[in-house]
# Entry
Amino acid sequence: MLMGGVLAVDAQNAPSVIPQHLKNKAVSVPVRKYDGTETIGKLLRQPNAYTAPSTLGLDPNEAIIGQTTYDLQTNASVQNRIYKNSDGGISAVWTYSQSNDLAAADRGTGYNYNSGTWGAQPTGRLESKRTGWPSITTLANGKEYTIAHNTADEDLQLTYRSAAGTGSWTEDITQLPSPIPTGNWWPRMVRGGADGNSLHVLSVTYPVANGGTVYNGQDGAPCYSRSTDGGATWDIVNEVLPELDSTYYISFSGDNYAWAESQGNTIAFVLGDNFEDVILMKSTDNGDTWTKTIIYDFPYDKFDEATTEVLDTPNSCDGSFAIMLDDNGEAHVFWGAMRVLNDVLNDDQTSYFPFTDGLCYWKESMGAGTPADTIAFSVDADQSGTLDWIEAGLYYVSVTGMPSVSLADNGDIYVTYAGLHDNLNNGSQNYRHIYAIKSTDGGDTWSEPNDVTPFEDFAENVFASVNPTNDGNCIPMIYQRDFEPGLAARGDEDAFDVNEIVYLCIPSTLDVGVEEQQNIIDEFSVYPNPAGTSTKVSFTVNTAGNVVVNVLDVRGQLISSYSNRVPAGRSSLEINVENFAAGVYFINAQIGEDVKTQKLMVK
# Structure
């Protein structure tokens, strides 16, 4: 079993107690259905006026580079959406829309470029037609490529230009035609080859439940394509690789796969699913031939919901993967743990356990069939011994899922993931923040998780994508942020709102929130909370200074502000909330660069 293996002895944050009512909570989902990620017939939903983003508490290393109302960046694995070029310029992409509805007629690739500073936030997509799920890379010849799936033409779309960050874009949907007439989508792309001018693409055929058809015996066939001449021609187009075909597997889901940044002619990807194996596919000749390694052998071969009972809730993967090739070409693979269930045959439903905890890790030197290590668990932030979760937004992944990995020039490995926060919630659901861990010894031991997005406590931070390499000083990353746990486009189906696309360069020390801020304010509290007519803000400061206390609503609008010089020690301030509308507010206390935030509920 996946999680029944050896626990990484270096896992400093040993598993904490998950509340029993959550630990054994199973959620049923339709087989092969993506809850409307591509369905455009749903009713228009109005934007949620109470979850608009704010820039309060912005980390000095952060920048807001774009916005989107279509908040689903991936169904599982995070694609390579940021790429730092050899000249230091940084390209970033995401699924963009400003439509406030699932149809999202303006949906497409949002793009920004940093040539020293980030450009203006885009107000439209790159493409002329509706697309989604972009990946980006730059070839050694300087040519910049994105790939996304084009819903109008039901095909993969390449968009490229001759130099990163400048020039006009060319669109091409002709070179990677779909093998079937009903779609081949959810692409991933990476560069490779000894000269750095090859392109490698993964995608999957559209499942039957989403309007597709069975292709060569598979309801969701994994397709591989390759260009060895910088995208001019494609010598492999939508090929199902040996040992991934219907002889071995009957289905794969969109986004349940990830590429490693290549090491010359050595390329590799990982794929799997809740009810499938975890599989490493690796080539040392730039995609001519492949070697398959089953990292985790799911105990039910060729699982079929209609006929295969899964009653012992086996451990599995959550379908969100990251993979890296080190300087020696060894593959390192990461994924979120999961438990699954199929207790009623042929009801078109399977179940998963959304509060399954644990970030799994395996590398090639461990050998095929060796149980994966668990290198991170959810953080017990208040050290209570219990994870104080209420509920979570539905992303259909682990509470330590959506990993992304970056290799430093000195060989250090950095991994980010979205983790459910122990004691930050909106009253009904806990928020997710981005956590990071690192290894300085090739994956043998790992640091404790570090919340690298602490500057907006009551924010949902997800879909982090790190640059595949870094200089050992900081790790470039983009992620998505808003103030409502969960999603509008899938899962919870919350009201649509504005989500920020945020760039952050994570210090390699992982001392985010320590180096950038002096810890001047301690013991910051608001009581009573909830409040009816007034509340008292109390705090201790370790040095005298001018303190500013701001009260803001959930849209970031300033409601009231107080400023006064306070001595070192304990101080308090009473705030009259008698005229405040009932709802959620945030109280910030700031001295110098140190800012503390508390949520206030007004009855």
